[in-house]
Amino acid sequence: MIDKVLEVEGLEYRIGALPILEDISFSLHRGESLSIVGPNGAGKTTLLKCMNRILKRSDGSVRVLGRPVDRFRQAELAKIISYVPQAGRQALPYTVFEFVLMGRYPYFSPFSSVSLEDEKATRDALCLTGIDHLQSRMLETLSGGEFQKVLIAAALAQSSEIMLLDEPTTFLDPRHQTEIIQILRRTNREQGITMLTVTHDLNSAVLISEQILAIKDGRSVFQGPSTEIMNEKILRELYEQKFDFVAHPNMHRVLAVPRVSE
User: Fold this and answer.
1) Mean per-residue pLDDT for 165-190?
2) pLDDT in tens, 21-72
3) How far apart are CA 153 and CA 158, in angstroms?
4) Which has the closest alpha carbon to 180: 213, 153, 212?
5) Residue 147 is inside which H or E element, if any?
6) What tens digit of pLDDT does each residue of 197-220 get?
7) Which residue in 79, 38, 58, 15 sits closest to 205, CA to CA?
8) Quick one: fold of 4-80+160-258?
9) CA atoms of 139 and 116, how far apart (whole Å)
10) Residue 98 CB burial class (10 angstroms; 0-12, 13-18, ≥19)
């Protein structure tokens, strides 16, 4: 069994002569959770899209289960990697169940109907995200937090080993942020899904993931355990901002608060 499910080495991405990512290298073992953090414009989302071939990297290598990502057929890759994009409020004419069922697309064939296995995977994903009671609702009637759960449910229905998430808690109120963090932690720990999450929220990253990759101006400035990034020197270099640090009351984590002068 291949233990490293995702390996990135010397990855670079350019738009013309402009470098967006430079010499990014990291790896993920099966069942690990990694968050990518950094200031706006650091290249976080670009890096995520290079993992899933949405963008074609300029140089370097990406290997999935020991195999170059370029050598997978799209449907084959989709059985291994699912992708949760930033939530948009598009008026999609589907119910929650119909949309989550679409996450099973790698397993569909042109001449077959939806299987019992597809329906079970869809219902399981709805239950895991706590939205089974919403399955008959139209997407356009959902709140932002509810729609984010639907996106995660669709990725879970895909039954992939690796899940890529782009800003899963952005624009959500505190209650829905907490619920999404709990869903992702439970999915990683109980389902064993390997997770790579892009977020601008440093504290969410520390609560979701055991490992952190921090990038600035397209280059890696920190890589290691999430507990070690809560360091004044590291965060000042990363964000050009001073921080104060507080202990989370219920978890063995230190959180960072931007320092504001009176």
Assistant:
1) 89
2) 999 999 999 999 999 999 999 999 999 999 888 898 889 999 999 999 999 9
3) 9
4) 153
5) helix 144-157
6) 999 899 999 999 999 999 999 999
7) 38
8) Rossmann fold (3.40.50)
9) 23
10) middle
Tokens 């709805």, residue located:
126
DSSP 87: P
Q: Which two tokens stand for residue 68?
A: 């170059």
Rounded distance between C-alpha atoms, residue 149 and residue 208, angstroms? 16
Closest CA to 258 of 198, 201, 205: 201
Take residue 5 and report the two structure tokens written for it. 């499910």
Tokens 């709140």 sit on residue: 143
Exposed (0-12), middle (13-18) or buried (19+): which is 48, by Cβ within 10 Å?
Answer: buried
Tokens 């679409």 identify what position?
102
Residue 259: other Cβ atoms inside 10 A: 10
Cβ neighbours for 238, distance < 8 A, ≥ 6 positions apart: 37, 38, 39, 214, 216, 221, 222
Helix (H, G, I), strand (E, B) or coil at 90: coil
CB half-sphere exposure, 108, CA atoms < 13 A? 12
Domain ranges across the chain: 4-80+160-258, 90-159
pTM: 0.91
d(CA 206, CA 136): 35
Parallel, antiparallel or unpaired: strands 162-166 and 81-84: parallel
